[in-house]
Amino acid sequence: MEQTEQANSQGGSRAQESSALLRVIPLGGLGEIGKNMAVLESGENLLIIDVGLMFPTMDMHGIDIVIPDAQYVFDRLDWVRGIILTHGHEDHIGGLPYLMEQGLQGPIYATALTRGLLEGKLREHKLLGEADLHTVTENDVIELGPFTVEFFHTCHSFPDSVGVSVMTPAGRVIHTSDYRFDPTPVDDKPTETGKLRRWGDEGVLLLMADSTNVEREGTTPSERTVETMLERTFPQAQGRILLATFASNLGRVQQIINVARRHGRRVGVVGRSMVNNVKIAIQLGYLDITQEELLTPQEMESLPAREVVIVATGSQGEPTSAMVRMSLGDHRQISLREGDTVILSAMPIPGNEELFNRTVDNLFRQGVDVLYHELGDVHVSGHGGREDYEHMLDLVRPKYFIPVHGEYRHLVLHSRLAVRKGVAPPNAFILEDGQTVEFDYFGAENDIEARLGEQAPAGHVFVDGLGIGDVGNVVLRDRKHLSENGFIVCILALDEFDGEVLYGPEIISRGFVYMRENEDLIKRAQDVVRKTIKKRAPQQVMEEKIKDALANFTYKEIGRRPMVLPLVMEV
Question: With the CA atoms of 247, 159, 281 and 123 taken in that order, what torsion angle do they form, in degrees rounded to the nearest 10?
Answer without folding.
Answer: 70
